Amino acid sequence: MLNLGFTIGSFVLSATTLPLGILMDRFGPRPTRLVGSASFAASCALMALASRDTRVLSPLIFLALSLNGFGGICLTFSSLTLPNMFGSLRSTFMALMIGSYASSAITFPGVKLIYDAGVSFEVIMFTWSGLACLIFLNCALNWPGEAFPAPEEVNYTKKIKLRGLALDHKVTGDRFYTHVTVVGQRLSQKAPSLEEGADVFISSQDVRGASESPPEKSVPLRQSLCSPIFLWSLLTMGMTQLRVIFYMAAMNKMLEYLVTGGQEHETDILRKRAAETVGFYSSVFGAMQLLCLLTCPLIGYIMDWRIKDCVDAPSEGTALGDARDGVATKSARPRYRKIQKLTNAINAFTLTNFLLVGFGITCLINSLHLQFVTFVLHTMVRGFYHSACGSLYAAVFPSNHFGTLTGLQSLISAVFALLQQPLFMAMVGPLKGEPFWVNLGLLLFSLLGFLLPSYLFYYRARLQREYATYWEGPKKVLGGSEVTA
Predict the structure, then answer these.
(1) Which residues on neighbouring strands pair with residue 159, listed in sequence order?
(2) What pLDDT does residue 450 have?
(3) Of the N and C termini of the chain, which has fewer Cβ atoms inside 10 Å?
């Protein structure tokens, strides 16, 4: 009954990702988080009540674990929008949150120690329910009703006054020259009214040199769903999820094979030794899950690398200002934000894929002590690929598509992960416990993970050529005018 309840709870957690993502994009993270924390608190309370009389109340475990899975994924999804508050460090904080989620299994040995110390199961679960109520209260008081906008989607208005020339927001870096130029042009055009002390208001569109252009239309969800970046990410994430989940499901059998050498060589002494070895290595593997929290910020740091030094994508107006500034200072062309995000994503996914290939190679080697290295690589890959994918979606796609895209990706990855069951049955059946051929096939399959960074490299090169046309043209014009001057 416990195993069936766990299966139902796990299914609810995976199956609700897509509709939950759509609802979160529609209504924002606050209602999702409120419902999730309430569901999680109710699930812990129901488990505590069911433990009082298990013969009568044990069916409550199905409802409790269903609410637990639904509430847990609600809290996880809503938390992934919070890093938008941290600007150029968004990917680092997202990786930290995903790392804390991936390493959360480390809490269960701690709970077991508390239980072994004499604290009843009811007290533990009611305490956990109380902590979920604190999350509900925090969300009700502190979380905004609307979604957290991405840093690049926040619009600012710069207010210019003749007397004092006060700026409500500082303008620094590569945008300063363009801003001063536009301000000077507008002040000269408005000279008669300025002498009378009237105020002049210059919008951020004026500062970017695009005041006459209409506002951009919102990107339709269909365009994000059909984009090659998202489609390649589905293949990469599904493949990685299958590799990671299969190892977690088959790890005990793999360790048994390393000790006994196969089913045909098993004896009572070897079985006893294998049980002791598997127990020890399983405990080490569980404790190593804490590495997710320690290593995930690295992939976030890679995704945030030099983002704060970048400028927005060029247009005709901004290219003129950037080129003029570059001619004046003899500096190189500006570093554009979208190009840098793609570069960081290429580095992040390339590193993750190399770690995944290294993990696959160590799985092929029949060495018991080498499994410690396998554990470390597995833990790093498990945290890295979720963090890199979440950061890629946040960097490339609109923030109001994040929940839907992440939910669909999670659902498809869960479907890929179902393939681990026939692979496991083939390993313990026809292959008689030998994992070599399954691991070899998965290693070759994992090479497909390099297709996503390869496409990102191609897409970045195409954008660089496109941006170069904005840069070189105004630069030549300005260079010629300076020679004339």
Answers:
(1) 201
(2) 95
(3) C
Summarize pLDDT for 355-388 with one digit per residue, the tens. 999 999 999 998 989 999 999 999 999 888 888 8
- DSSP label of 306: T
What are the structure tokens assigned to 16, written together? Answer: 């609700």
Banded pLDDT at 319 (limits 50, 70, 90): low
Task: Say how far apart CA 348 and CA 290 lie, in whole Å.
Answer: 21
Residue 276, exposed/middle/buried by CB under 10 A (0-12, 13-18, 19+)? exposed
376/289 Cα distance (integer angstroms):
9
Of 402, 343, 303, 239, the closest CA to residue 90 belongs to 303
Burial class (CB in 10 A: 0-12, 13-18, 19+), 267: exposed
Confidence bin at 472 (pLDDT 50/70/90)? low
Dihedral pair phi/psi, residue 268, rounded to 5° = -65, -40
Q: At 42, phi and psi to the nearest 5?
A: -65, -40
Residue 126 in tokens: 């009611």
Single out the residue of 263, 15, 134 nearest to residue 7, CA to CA.
15
- Side chain identity at residue 261, one-letter code: G
pLDDT, tens digit (0-9, with 9 covering 90-100), for 12-27:
676 677 888 888 878 8
Q: Phi and psi for 59 in degrees, rounded to 5? A: -60, -20
Longest distance between any two alpha carbons in the chain, whole Å: 100
- On whether the CB atoms of residues 282 and 251 are closer than 8 A, the answer is yes
Residue type, 21: G
Contacts of 84 (CB under 8 A, 6+ apart): 90, 148, 149, 150, 151, 394, 399
- Distances, alpha carbon 208 to alpha carbons 307, 310, 337, 341, 465, in Å: 19, 15, 15, 21, 21
Query: For residues 432 and 404, what is the distance between their CA atoms, to the nearest angstrom?
Result: 42
Any idea how long the chain is?
485
